[in-house]
Amino acid sequence: MNPTDILLSIAIVGIYTQIYIYLKTNYKDKKIIYNLFFAGFSIATLITGILYYLIKYIAS
User: Fold this and answer.
1) What pLDDT score does 1 carry?
2) Residue 18: predicted pLDDT
3) Helix axis angle, 3-24 relative to 30-59, nearest 10°?
């Protein structure tokens, strides 16, 4: 995997996770923030991985 692709994937996951947390919480309960962070990070990582392999498959 190209280093640029890795950095782009990390940036997409980070941005998605921050937006997910911002939209879903009021920042008063730390436990909810942590749960949302892990859920958002997992979902974003899964989506990024699927898109990467889909693009790789189409390009080849």
Assistant:
1) 62
2) 78
3) 140
Q: In the Cβ-directed half-sphere of 41, how many Cα atoms lie within 13 Å?
A: 8
Do 27 and 33 contact (CB within 8 A), yes or no?
yes
Residues 39-52 have a mean pLDDT of 79
User: Measured at the alpha carbon of residue 30, what is the angle toward residues 6 and 47, in degrees to the nearest 5?
Assistant: 30
Tokens read off for 2 = 């190209």
- Give the pLDDT of residue 27: 67
Q: Please, what sign has the CA dihedral across residues 41, 42, 48, 52? A: positive
Whether this model's pTM surpasses 0.90:
no
Contact (Cβ atoms closer than 8 angstroms) between residue 37 and residue 21: yes
Residues found in the chain: 60
